[in-house]
Amino acid sequence: MVKSESQLKKMVSKYKYRDLTVRETVNVITLYKDFKPVLDSYVFNDGSSRELMNLTGTISVGYRGHTYNISICLWLLDTYPYNPPICFVKPTSSMTIKIGKHVDANGKIYLPNLHEWEHPSQTFGAYSGHNCGVWR
């Protein structure tokens, strides 16, 4: 588990906006205690891959009077926060992905705020709080 900003800076040492990425990551893991930063290989649609940081954890989503904990993974590009995170629903073995307007068969999340992402007005904290209801 990453415990300090210096550890985060090492994880994103090749990122163009390292300090902004670290600041936003600290904000996310402070707001969402379950989220953990991980450095891993992300494979793009064209088959190329890149070592990127992701934040994986659960968010609570209310639906029809019940609260569900949904596991998600947010991949931060090396140009973050000037480019949006690539977001996925990560179902447990007992869950299935409900394909719809905002989630594809691979669990990739499509939301207007991701398509219209602009830093500094867009941050993950603002994005998550505003859009959790759309994933229902």
TrEMBL record:
<dbReference type="InterPro" id="IPR008883">
    <property type="entry name" value="UEV_N"/>
</dbReference>
<dbReference type="GO" id="GO:0008333">
    <property type="term" value="P:endosome to lysosome transport"/>
</dbReference>
<dbReference type="GO" id="GO:0015031">
    <property type="term" value="P:protein transport"/>
</dbReference>
<dbReference type="InterPro" id="IPR052070">
    <property type="entry name" value="ESCRT-I_UEV_domain"/>
</dbReference>
<feature type="domain" description="UEV">
    <location>
        <begin position="2"/>
        <end position="136"/>
    </location>
</feature>
<dbReference type="InterPro" id="IPR016135">
    <property type="entry name" value="UBQ-conjugating_enzyme/RWD"/>
</dbReference>
<dbReference type="Pfam" id="PF05743">
    <property type="entry name" value="UEV"/>
</dbReference>
<dbReference type="GO" id="GO:0043130">
    <property type="term" value="F:ubiquitin binding"/>
</dbReference>
<protein>
    <recommendedName>
        <fullName>UEV domain-containing protein</fullName>
    </recommendedName>
</protein>
<dbReference type="GO" id="GO:0000813">
    <property type="term" value="C:ESCRT I complex"/>
</dbReference>
